[in-house]
Structures are given as structure tokens and as C-alpha cells.
Write the C-alpha cells for this entry.
Amino acid sequence: MEKFTSHTGVGVPLRRSNVDTDQIIPAVYLKRVTRDGFEDGLFSAWRNDPTFVLNNPVYAAGSVLVAGPDFGTGSSREHAVWALQNYGFRAVISPRFADIFRSNSGKAGLLAAQVDEKVVQRLWDLLADQPGAEITVDLETRTVRAGEGVDAIEDSFDIDDYTRWRLLEGLDDIGITLGHADVISAFEAERPRFKPATL
Amino acid sequence: MGRTLSEKVWDEHVVRATPGEPDLLYIDLHLIHEVTSPQAFDGLRLAGRQVRRPDLTLATEDHNVPTIDWDKPIADPVSRTQVETLRRNAEEFGVRLHPLGDLDQGIVHVVGPQLGLTQPGMTIVCGDSHTSTHGAFGAIAFGIGTSEVEHVLATQTLMQAKPKTMAVTVNGTLPAGVTAKDLVLTLIAHTGTGGGQGYIVEYRGPAIEALSMEGRMTVCNMSIEWGAKAGMIAPDQTTFDYIEGRPEAPRGADWDAAVAHWTSLVTDDDAVFDKEIVLDASEMTPFVTWGTNPGQGVPLGASVPDPADFDDAQDQVAAEKALEYMGLTAGTPMREVRVDTVFVGSCTNGRIEDLRLAAEIIKGRKVDPQTRLLVVPGSVRVRLQAQDEGLDVVFKEAGAEWRGAGCSMCLGMNPDTLEPGERSASTSNRNFEGRQGKGGRTHLVSIPVAAATAVRGTLSSPADLEPLSTDTPVTAGA
Ligand code: SF4
């Protein structure tokens, strides 16, 4: 996995709460057997609407999504994370993420930065004033920064220590776990024999 | 201090615990389906890794599969590729697969329990958020993403931070005609879709204990719809009776050892939950959704709410958007909402008990001429058992479509979808925009509401149906 330290890019306001994974990418787009090519399905139901934010050329280079609370609820599909990444997003900012979405993001290398609800509102206000403004998400210092002068926004975001460390180092979870293969084998030796097997 | 059910099961599975790191948790059963696994198997291949425990892994085909002509090649080439990819991966890595046409094919969360593979005290994961269903047996069961699927395939473990614990106590008795589905929809309307976030929830209390295993599965299934990591119910005699004698259930001395252990899997009297919610079942009524998330629901006897009545500004906006999408006007009685399609099925309500209940209400009646009723059993075994009991005949005589097993219109990956603007009453678990087909409008309902709605063509409960003439038998099947 690529290391993630800090990213600065065009902020995209998604003024909605409860953006579920069926909205991020509907089921009909989940049929690919690779991890790429999902960008066409991203927010597909809304992309027909000319007023939808991603149809505004100002946001063509958008890479930091700023969404309302409960982003990524519903299905476990990691395709939702891949679709955002395939489209060009590196980070999503929201006051609350669904657990599985947050976990999938951490594994796939998309930064899910949880901030206070007021910070999202201030970022939305900034982007309304200055469409195309850039936002920095700094994983090393766990801060979100945007704007300049008296209106500058700087606040902390939440991410668990372990995910942060893995993202900063670009580490592969499976490699780490396989380093504990002996402990796993020892655990297996003690499993009760009444536990079911499929073969 | 005592421990809760979830803490006991969790502790039994910790392979490695280090401060500042998530626990490394052993996984007893890994369920797999065609949609969320191909990239995981690819990852294994790229890294030259094996499946560590194929004997703790089970695959089936459910999301993409057609529910008619399932003996012919899948018409949609992309769906076909995905299913064929699963078959190739299962073959290459030595994983047991129940493919289309097999007796044990079906929705992964119906197949596990029906085989007896789902047992108390286990850890069960699947690349599917409704894995929470298996918590009904007193297992810790939750959905994972594809990277985690790959992690479990390679290591039979997962790194997981220990969630907080919550108790949902449901006192009283559910009134006649009010089901587990109404109970959980009422709960979600109460908590909102994020209310359970970060928690493993234990459902308890007299109303939960009184539920059948099917009812318990319906409740645990929808845990994810209010954001919970997992839902659990302590195993008891109802649980043991359901498991005993199933193909993969323990036998003989193993059975006795298993039951002795399972009996210890209850929350200690002095255990403390991080949060508690108490509900009264006796006040519950048939419950239906009006909006585009499972928390936007009201009693069937109520009306479409007015967005202005919500206190929170975000809720107001969400309600306005939902009403616009759903094509509903505030103040319309829910009972006057006309429905085009009724879908009976899914991992929430596609088990034999659900089909029996639906047939009991439909028997001797006809589906409304403007309405389509689709009955999709959760698995091939459910379909065959229903046919043995004559339920298929009841449905077909009423004018319903009797289909093959799979997820079907729950998510519309196969050809069973709603047309734009079409309205459904669905026994599934998600009413998200476009969930059942682009532009489709979904009302989540219980089995009795689905059956009565199919007959009347508007959202209804069995109490709204004209009584049958006395010479018509009212019980379904044999
Ligand atoms: S029936 Fe629906 S909710 Fe259940 S596994 Fe299938 S698609 Fe998911």
C-alpha cells in the first residue's frame, strides 16, 4: 500500500447526510472482478442531475470529499472505497462514518477523517464562498486545514492510532499478521473439537 | 466484575492482544459469495498465498443468480463472469462451494444456519454486512470488506478493536400480528441509522426470548441498519432445538460438550453494558418505512410525516429529499399508499417460517390485479420444503410468482428489479434510493403486511382484509 502522510487537493462539498454505500455505488456496478474501473458507478444516480456537485467543472480535480454525518452506511462493499479512489479521491471528511466503511478505507488507503460537525459546516461554507478551494488533510498532525487569513480553518480530525500508523507506513495488514503465524497455530491447537468444519 | 455475552465470546477468540493495537481475533467460520471475494482471491494469488483453513470456509452463489431459468447459463455476461470466477477460485483454493443448482445453494445467511454451521459462541464473518444475522445464535458475526476477506482467507484471523457493548432489552409481549420485523423497524426508528455505531448489541428480555430462531435472525439481521457492529442473542433451548440434528451440528459426546459450553454463554448478572435501551413490545404495531433509510418509519396506522415536524435541521432536509424521491405527500395515510410490487424474500424474511406465514394470509385470496407478488425463497432447501408443504400452490393460485433461491430483488443485481418510479413493499432490509432498481421506491414491511398489501394493493395489515367465506380453509399447507 502507498504511504499516506499529507494530502492537499480541491475540496468537494457533498451536502447530504446518510450517504449509504448504495448511493456511493449501486449494486449493478459491483460485477467487476478487479479493483479498478469503478469510477463510472460513483454516485451514479446523482450524476444525471446537471446540478450535482461532481458535474460542476470547478470540482473536476476534486480529491477531498466533505460529506454530512453517517457517510458510508449500509452494505460492506469495499467497491465504495475503490470507486472513490478510482475517481480520484484521496480523503473523505465527515462527522461520522459507518464502521465497515471506515475500516475498508483504512485497508485500501483512503483517508477517512472524522471531524466535528461544525468543521464540516465551515468547510461547506468556505467551498460555497470559494468553489475550487483546496483542503489539506495532514495525517501526521491529524489536522484539517483550509482557507486563509481570519477565515482560515484549522482543526483536528479523529482516526485510530493503529490505522494512522499503517497508513503512514504504507503497511500491508496480512504481512503483519503472518508474522504471528506461530501464535495462530498455537491457538488453533487448543480449539474445542465440537467446533464445526466445512470439509 | 462479570462479563457480557459478547465479551465472553470475544475473549475466547483473542489470539494476540497488545496494548495500542487491535486484538487479533480467530475466525471460526468464513462465508463467501461471488460479489465481494474475487479481488480477495486475486490478492492471494498475487502474493503467492494459500487459504489457511479451507475447512472453515464456505462459499455459495446468491447475489447475482437468476431466480428463473437457473438451470441455463446466466444471461448477463458480467454476472456470469463473477459467478464463474467464484467457481474457479473455490476449485483452485479447495473451498467448499454450493453453486447454482445445488441443494444447499441460497442466500449465504440462510445457508449457514440451515446447515447447522452457525452455532453459539463462534466468530463468523462474511463480505456482507448482514452477517449480523448469525448473531441470533449467540455468535459474534459481522460483515467485512474485501481486504478483510483476503486477510481472513490468508490468516483465519482479523485485527479488530474491541467494540463497546450495548443491551437492548425488550419487555412485554408482542401483540398478535406484530412480528420480529416490526420490533426491529420500531427500534431503528427510535435510534436512527447511526445509533448503534461502535457497539456489539445484545438483544434480551422476554419479548426477545419468546421469538423463534427465524424471528431472532430477523432482528439480528437488521442490526447493521442502525449502525451496530453486530447483534447477538444469548443461546437457549430454542437455539439448541434449532441446531440439533442439522447436517453440520455436533453429535454424540461432541453435542453434549457443545451444549455444556453454550449454556455458559450468557451475560453475568453483575456485568455492565456501556449503554442500555429499553423498549416495550406490548406497545408495538405493524411498522412500515416511508423514507429512504430504515430509520424513516412509522406505524402502519400513521401518516407520511411532515418534514417540518422534525426538530433537527439535518433530519428535515433528509425527510424532504426522501419524500421527493419516494413521491409521497406529507399527511397521506400510509394505508392509502398504492404498491406495484410486493417482494417476499431476502436474508431478513426469506425462511420457511416467513413463507408459511405469508401463505397462511394469502391462502384462498387473490393478489390485487394491479399488483405483482414475487415470492423468493432464501435457499433451495427452503424452496423444496415450502413445495413439500404445498405453499407454492397457495402462492401460485393467488397469482404470485414462485421463484428460485437467491437475493433477487433485495438488491436487484439479477434481473429482478423495480422500474424507475415503481413502488414496492418489501420484506428485505434496505430502502435506500435505487436499492431495488434505479428510481425504485421501497417500503420495508413485515411478512403479514407484505401478504395483506399484495391482496389489497395498498399498504395493509391482515386486519384490513375481508374475512374469507367460512367454507374456505384458513390454514396453509399440510
Ligand atoms: S438478501 Fe439482500 S441483504 Fe441479504 S445478503 Fe442478499 S443482498 Fe444482502
About this structure: Residues B 62-63, 107, 109, 128, 130, 346-347, 407, 410-411, 428-429 surround iron/sulfur cluster (CB under 6 Å).
